[in-house]
Design a protein that fits this description.
Elements lengths: L8 E5 L6 E4 L9 E6 L5 E3 L6 E4 L7 E5 L10 E6 L17 H23 L19 H4 L2 E2 L12 E2 L2 E5 L5 E2 L3 E5 L4 E5 L3 E2 L15 E5 L1 H56 E5 L17 E4 L4 E5 L4 E2 L1 H21 L5 H59 L4 H24 E5 L17 E4 L4 E5 L4 E3 L5 H7 L1 H4 L5
Parallel strand pairs: 10-12, 16-17, 20-21
Antiparallel strand pairs: 1-7, 2-6, 3-4, 3-7, 5-6, 8-9, 11-14, 12-13, 13-15, 17-18, 18-19, 21-22, 22-23
Helix pairs in contact: 3-5, 3-6, 5-6
Length: 497
């Protein structure tokens, strides 16, 4: 047969259960295979045929099996190595003039090739020069006694040399001491380790790097640099830990600022929502729900753009005090005319006229009271606007603080800025609805933008509350103060924020 495979070794991992392992190379006898067990500590043990294992397949070109006996099964921490190990002998003997047996001759050739393969496997595990490298000195010329306690080495030309002693540790360096080649000492000033290059009697003082004999020593261990590096590393670790703590603190502070800013924004939004539920703005007709689609609250008001008047919700319906007052005024004028015509005819009509005059005076007083209440409401609304402005400032401050506290708090800073924008929007909406106190009718709102229908402001010159009907400012007057109190208008603006 021919030898077509170069495999001479198989390796497997044990599992504590499997007892049969395949070898994939040819052997002639059961003794031609070597079984090695390698443990977790890299210790190798050669096992014995029959005692530890049995072999099948001797003579087969495809190999066979190695079967471990009971109690010798490889564990899960062991490696099984099956290696061909033919004896290095020639067993074929040809007799002169006898027939030339081809099978015996071929077996001899097979054995020779297998032996070469075994040697190649050994060479592959050896330290050797590459194909392009050369070395003149490849043999040791000294005996075992001279080699004892010495190391394998190469000279300055890369050639194999007589092995040298590693060196003898002489302890701390001292002056006036005879040192031999490869003596090792410690420099106590730096804790560095040196090896002696030239035999001499020491002189001078430490450190050896500046000693008069410094050229006779070579540094082996730079302990000084190692100590410095260790110290620097420890300092760096401490600084890193401090930075981590500071970063965590900054992150916590940023999160707190974010929460505060969000709370400010929520408060501002709630404040405007409360105001928005009280003053519904401009409507063409009486609304049945507030601007959020919720039930109307008692005391709510809106500007009716159809009738150009302010209306108030009494809990069940909308009242128009100004329109009602105008209607009453018209009716009073007609009554006055009628009364004048019939004055001479009816004393009772004169009495009624006097009573009407008294009622008119009372109405005037009530109107004055309403004006005062309106001024109070305007003042309260101004205070609310100031509070909203403060909330805006606080939100902006919180957002700025959150941004600067830590890099890893960028998300919190963004949230704070969003909250600030919400607060500013809430205040801007309020500021467009109520313009605060003015000495005269404004032509634009507080932002310099066009006035919106139903806007309010308090005229400090006339001490009256005025509303914008889309083209002109009108006094909010002739309003029954009891109706204001009943409907809660006097406190609506005050609680808006």
């Amino acid at each position: 047969m021919t030898i077509s495979s170069t495999t001479v070794k198989n390796s497997y991992s044990g599992n504590g259960t499997l007892n049969t392992f395949n070898y994939t190379f040819k052997i002639f006898a059961n003794t031609d295979i070597q079984v090695i067990i390698r443990d977790a500590d890299a210790n190798e043990t050669v096992k014995s045929l029959t005692t530890h294992y049995t072999v099948t397949g001797a003579g087969s070109g495809s190999g066979g099996t190695v079967v471990f006996t009971s109690g010798n099964i490889p564990t899960n921490t062991e490696t099984v190595v099956l290696r061909r190990a033919l004896p290095q002998t020639q067993a074929i003997d040809y007799i002169a003039n006898d027939p030339f047996p081809a099978e015996s001759h071929e077996e001899g050739l097979d054995r020779s090739m297998m032996a070469i393969q075994q040697l190649q496997e050994e060479v592959d595990r050896s330290i050797k020069l590459s194909r392009t490298n050369t070395m003149n000195s490849t043999e040791f010329t000294i005996g075992d006694t001279d080699r004892a306690n010495k190391v394998f080495g190469f000279d300055s030309a890369g050639e194999l040399v007589v092995t040298q002693e590693l060196g003898t540790f002489r302890g701390d360096w001292s002056a006036s001491t005879a040192y031999e080649v490869r003596d090792i000492v410690k420099d106590t000033s730096t804790n560095n380790i040196f090896i002696c290059l030239t035999a001499h009697t020491s002189s001078g003082s430490e450190p050896l790097t500046t000693n008069t004999d410094s050229a006779k020593w070579s540094l082996l261990v730079d302990a000084e640099s190692a100590t410095t590096s260790a110290t620097n590393a420890a300092n760096s670790a401490t600084a890193a830990a401090t930075s981590a703590t500071n970063a965590a603190t900054s992150e916590t502070n940023a999160a707190t600022s974010e929460t505060n800013a969000a709370s400010s924004a929520t408060s501002a939004a709630n404040s405007f929502d409360s105001f928005d539920d009280r003053f519904l703005g401009t409507k063409a007709s009486d609304p049945t729900l507030d601007n959020d689609g919720n039930a109307l609250v008692e005391g709510a008001m809106y500007y009716n753009s159809t009738d150009n008047d302010i209306r108030f919700y009494n809990g069940s319906s909308w009242d128009a005090p100004a329109t009602d007052a105008a209607t009453s005024a018209t009716a009073s004028a007609s009554s006055a005319t009628a009364s004048a015509t019939s004055a001479t005819a009816s004393a009772n009509s004169a009495t009624a006229s006097a009573t009407s005059a008294t009622n008119a005076a009372t109405s005037e007083t009530n109107a004055g009271t309403s004006e005062t209440n309106a001024a109070s409401s305007a003042s309260a609304a101004s205070t609310s606007a100031s509070n909203a402005s403060t909330s805006e400032t606080n939100a902006a401050t919180s957002a700025t603080t959150a941004t600067t506290q830590a890099t890893n708090a960028a998300t919190s800073a963004t949230a704070a800025q969003t909250a600030q924008a919400a607060a500013e929007l809430a205040y801007d909406n309020f500021d467009d609805r109520y313009l605060g106190p003015k000495a005269s009718d404004p032509a634009t709102d507080n932002d310099g933008d066009a006035l919106i229908d139903g806007a309010l402001y308090f005229n400090t010159t006339g001490n009256v509350l005025k509303y914008w009907d889309g083209s002109a400012w009108n006094n909010v007057e002739a309003v029954d103060t009891s109706n204001f109190a009943t409907n809660g208008f006097s406190i609506a603006m005050a609680i808006a924020l």
